[in-house]
Amino acid sequence: MKNEEIKKGEIVIYKAKGGPIIDVRLQQDTVWLTQKEMALLFDKDLRTVNEHIKNIYQEKELDIKSTIRKFRIVQKEGQRTVERDIDCFNLDAIISVGYRVNSKRGTQFRIWATNVLRRHLVDGYTINEKRLKAQQSKILELQETVRLLGNLALLESVSDEAKGIVQIISEYTRALNLLDDYDHQKLIVPKGTKKAKYKLTYEESRSIIEQMKKKFRDSALVGQEKDKSFQGSIGAIYQTFDGKDVYPTIEDKAAHLLYFVTKNHSFIDGNKRIAAALFVCFLQRTGILLCKDGSKRIDDNALVALTLMIAASKPSEKDIMIKVILNLISQAESKRSVGRSVRRIIPGT
């Protein structure tokens, strides 16, 4: 390892009852000891520790590459102080040796390690569970407060300004609920628009890309296809099974179009911009780009955030990404209606 990497690590101390004090290297979310330090830790000779390590790897109990690292260590050799690259073993290897050695200190270490793991698994879980319950309780309290405030806004004696504030709080509560559902994996697929005469084709998609390139004066690499996967992305949103559309609504198709074009990375350059442009054009040509008041259903910042979020997501997170897009599309109209009522109640907004 590089010296600068070593400096970033931390040193923790383990002390056995009646045994030596050992400085333990803490780095890359684990601890590291040399063979000599393990011999000192378990009160066994170096040859015995080496034999255990050899058997661990021969029996394929652990993987060598992931459990051994070289550290540059300063040590005394006779009268000289020298620096050498020494093999160090991580916590997995240390525990494996600790459960093999037959010594009093080995037993002490096993008891210590077992207790630490138990506290981590049991106490750590309990703490996290309490934290989650507390957060959920706060959200429920907020929702109940908003409900009560909503009732308050219906009273004639309440001023127009107070009613406007209540409306604003209610509007932000929708966003809080969406975030809470996302955290607890409770997002549902909202109902969408079933019918659409428009169908996006590969040829039209290429035309949209060329228009985008001219507008932004992009290089020849933007939109240059690496393979046939882009055609597959377009075709995928219209695939059927047993005579029925796999993605039955306009919103479904739009969300999957944005996801597939972003994730398939079909172009040498410009993948995210092309995905966003096609998504917007698809919404426009299917008639759901704008809300009833003429505002964008998904604004510029949301479009950028969605595209970047998809690009950074794991393949296993596809379903949750799609649900986020669908929820943002479906909630846009109701959010706009609240905004309009707020502007009617509060002068100057």
Structural class of the secondary elements? alpha+beta
Q: Please name the CATH architecture of the largest domain.
A: Up-down Bundle
Strand order of the largest sheet: 1-2-3-5-4
Percent helix, as a range, is: 55-70%
Order of helices and strands: HEEEHHHEEHHHHHEEHHHH
Distance between the termini: 59 Å
Name given to the CATH homologous superfamily of the largest domain:
Fic/DOC protein, Fido domain
Q: What summary fits the major beta sheet?
A: 5 strands, antiparallel
Overview of the molecule:
By secondary structure, the chain is α+β, with helices and mostly antiparallel strands. A hairpin with a 5-residue loop joins strand 1 (10-15) and strand 2 (21-27). The strands form 2 sheets. It has a 5-stranded antiparallel sheet with strand order 1-2-3-5-4. Strands 6-7 form a two-stranded antiparallel sheet. The protein has 3 domains: 3-119; 123-183; 202-345, Fic/DOC protein, Fido domain (Four Helix Bundle (Hemerythrin (Met), subunit A)), CATH 1.20.120. Helix 6 (104-153) runs antiparallel to helix 7, helix 8 (202-216) crosses helix 11 (271-285) and helix 10 (250-264) runs antiparallel to helix 11 (271-285). It contains 13 helices and 7 strands. The chain has helices at 3-8, 35-42, 46-58, 64-67, 91-98, 104-153, 160-183, 202-216, 229-236, 250-264, 271-285, 300-312, 318-345; strands spanning 10-15, 21-27, 30-33, 68-77, 80-90, 240-241, 244-245.
